Amino acid sequence: MPADLTASERPVLVRDGAGLGLPFSRGLMATSILATGADTDVAYAIAASIQRALAEDGARSIGADALAALAGNTIATIGGPTMAARYRTWRALRREGRPLVIVLGGAPGVGKSTLSTRLAVRLGITRVVTTDTIREVLRTVIPSTVLPELHVSTYEAISERADDPDAYLRQARVVGGALLAVGERLMSERRSVILEGVHLLPGEILPTLAAHPSQPVAVELLLTLDDVELHRAHLAARATGEPTRGGARALAQFARIRRLHEVLVDRARARGIETLDVGEPRRLSERLLELIFGQAAPTVARP
User: Which of 42, 137, 194, 214 has the greatest count of CB atoms below 10 A from its CB?
Assistant: First the structure.
């Protein structure tokens, strides 16, 4: 292990419940603290403080629960009680072995992929499954003669008429059903996952996932972008910066994309699904974590 990851030249061993020990890692501790929403520099400052406390104590080893208690107290001192409460909730969730499933829906161009990646890094989730990927797989086995809506872009499937989203809904339910099967498989394996995409109709798959025997902590959010011109700017940036993602074509269909945005918002409100406007990017990841931990905290046992 690199020297800069350990507490000292004589590293403190962190013992698990079976008595097995691994050297304390400041880097790994800082990574776990990122789940609280702390900025990277704050997370590393807290981890360094924990490292110093271990060195000053002089012990050659520490139990995992004792280290978690030390971490919680240090986080409370430096980051405050809210950050410490998030850490303890995250620690309890992992100790119980319950998977975390996060469902992020939203219209094209609102920033779902970017935020999913940020959340995955902070929460240590290694599986992010997109509805676009599922749709591409389905297109290889379901011909256009059977389901023509599956073989067009999502924003081309929705009509500009306010009373006719049926083609999009048919596409979304087929893709969402397949994504639900993927989610249930991961829940059976007790794997945490972020499911994201435009085909996630608010309130459609979360109840089934939440009722899975693995007792996952299931959280759903609809990402919105109420500022129309900012939404257009997002797609314009995609057209120039990521040309393979079809930003130019999306811009040409912007009226339909906004209609899709309205359909999703209406469905979320009708089903009591939390919405989050991403038009205010400052500390957006932390606000997402606040919503997630706010829903997760009542369902897990504290240490």
Answer: 194
